[in-house]
Amino acid sequence: MATPALGSILLGTTNPHRLRDWYAAALAPGDGGEAFTEVTPTMFAGTFGDTSVLIDGRSDVADRNPDPGRVILNFHVDDARATADHLNALGVTWLVELEERAGGLFGTLVDPDGNYVQIIELKE
Amino acid sequence: MVADAPVPETPAGVRRRARIRAITLESRAPDRAAAWYRQALGLADADPLLTAGGVELRFTLATADAPNTVEPARIILNFHVDDIRTAEARLVALEAVWVRELERTRWGIIGTVLDLDGNFVQIVEPAPDSPPCLQPKEEHP
Q1: Is the minimum CB–CB distance between B106 and chain A shorter than 8 Å?
Q2: For B61-105, what is each residue's pLDDT tens digit?
Q3: SS3 letters for chain A?
Q4: Which fold has domain A1-59?
Q5: Which residue ranges make up each domain of chain B?
């Protein structure tokens, strides 16, 4: 039997369209709005590397994550500074602005639901 | 005649889509949580990294008295397996708390358990006709 794979990460939200648009614009800007496929009218799926983000409209979560930081999605990018410029142009909210650490460049932003999303460019 | 609004050009450095390489889970007991996931997923103890299909699971320390996750439906990790009964047996052996026992859905067979910090963890054997984005990705060693 093959080792289990993290097939997807489901983000429960009261506003799936807003969250889809944000992830598409922030993290797949080169895809011209085609980053996500509509699975149902309130569920969208987009592949980001070896796994997918499933954005699921549901009623058992609040409008805003009351407990951010419990689970953080780490996105690797080719050029973190260019990504940060792009994100700033979108007007995103940073929890920790892009900074150089031992292993590379790291920054943490907050998605419209309050989830924490880390941007990483590792030193090769 | 009105010209279409110009489409802003995507900066060169961000043309390639970002890739999720890791998920960080905050835990009251990171070592114990990592061991739980390793057993739940059937990963070898010898592997230095805890990875599932090319995505690393990392664990950081929460305060020892942190309560369970407040909204477990907020972020759910879906682990795809090719034999759901084997995956179920591992979770039963771990005495995992089941939120939803195995159930056949339009997406495949799905079961949900709680991890040690109260997060929902799902095992999924995808249906052959589920949307391509929900199918297993390329297999990783």
Answers
A1: no
A2: 987 677 899 999 999 999 999 999 999 999 999 999 999 999 999
A3: CCCCEEEEEEEEECCHHHHHHHHHHHHCHHHCCCCCEEEECCEEEEEEECEEEEEEECCCCCCCCCCCCCEEEEEECCCHHHHHHHHHHHCCEEEEEEEEECCEEEEEEECCCCCEEEEEEECC
A4: 3.30.720
A5: 20-134
In the CATH scheme, what architecture does the domain B20-134 have? Roll (3.10)
For chain A, give the longest Cα–Cα distance: 46
Q: Break chain A into its structural domains and give their ranges.
A: 1-59, 68-124
The answer to whether B13 contacts A82, with C-beta atoms less than 8 Å apart, is yes
Helix (H) or strand (E) holding B50: none
Fold of A68-124: 2,3-Dihydroxybiphenyl 1,2-Dioxygenase; domain 1 (3.10.180)
What Å distances lie between residue B94 and A1, B60, B113, CA to CA? 19, 22, 11
Tell me what ipTM this predicted complex has.
0.95
What are the chain A neighbours of B124 within 8 Å (beta carbons)? Answer: 7
In percent, how much of chain A has pLDDT > 90? 91
pTM for the model:
0.91
> pLDDT, tens digit, for every residue of A9-19?
999 999 999 99
